[in-house]
Amino acid sequence: MVNWKQNFAVIWLSQFISIMGFNFALPFAPYFIQELGVTDPVRLKMWVAVFAASTPLTLAVFSPIWGMLADRYGRRVMLLRANFAGAIVLALMGTVRSVELLILLRLMQGVFTGTMTAAQTMVSVSTPSHRSGFALGALTAAMYSGAMVGAFVGGVFADWFGFRGTFFAGGLLLLASGLLVTFGTTENFVRHIPEIEDERSPVRAHWADLGPALPILILIVAMAGARQFDQAMLPLLVQDIHGSIQGVSIWTGSLSAFCGIAGLLAAPLLGRLADRVPPPKIGKMSALGAGLLMLPQGLAHSFLLLFGCRFGMVFCAGGLDPVFQIWLSRVTPEHKRGVVFGWAATARSMGWVVAPLVSGGVASALGIRSVFFIGSLLFFGLVPLISVVVKRLARD
Question: Which of 21, 152, 159, 272 has the highest Cβ tally under 10 A?
Fold first, then answer.
């Protein structure tokens, strides 16, 4: 018999390490791109936007495929695939000599990785339903805490050993995460076989199986776009406030670490609250708070204001993803969660693809600070959108 508590503890730790590995290097990509020879401000913003959008683009295409394979062959093997592939891709990024090759590897990252979606799927099917809010919220906390530690330590590491070294170190962390899952988790997977053969075409059956999850998936696209809108340009805002690229990785890593504390606190608190309060109500309050606290960041000319407002914004926004995942798991039968969570990753990735491309264009045309003003409007727009989805589900 599988011990769900042991599985959850090991998966939590593995996610902490894997997200730490990704954040050991990726937050400093705008500075690495400059090291690769891209120094023109307009071209730099373009390549930073393309870098940010590349992985979500391929992740959006392949996540449903991996989700269907998870429902067919097991969730644990998908988590192993994501970790070991991430280790290889990150290490290869440290060897590139051109920004074009870096982008190619970012595309490959989206094809073969996706540790968070794989972990969420495995946890959602092995955890008792009355503990799902706590488990998924705590798993999101692992993401934030891993990002916090990875960005801070990675920033110091980059300042000492260079940006290339952070990619190699990040790859080793992903390898450690994969080994932890290999030797620390178990799964008694039994493939679900329907009692009555479905006479519908595979395409129609697949879309029909999404059922009530479909409007929530549309909402996840909007949520992901709002949350990611300013992310690619944030290191350039930090560089603008700092005034130089020298030592800027420490400031960027410190900001990510400080805000990671906010996400670490928000995810389990709001996830546990979602076991008692309807997830849509929590989502509305989180979106409103995030929008209000993003506005002053566009006006910040000191790290004190930027750090303070960013902390509050991340706390509010940190509740959105786990709340929506809890909402999604409650309307989805267990045997369909692999494919539905795969589509959730696609929905999230679609927002991640569009957001940096649009924000990069906004930054080039109107300046970096305008990105934060428009980003706040996107958060405000989530409030009425959540109400629409609630009414749609009530009708169905």
Answer: 21
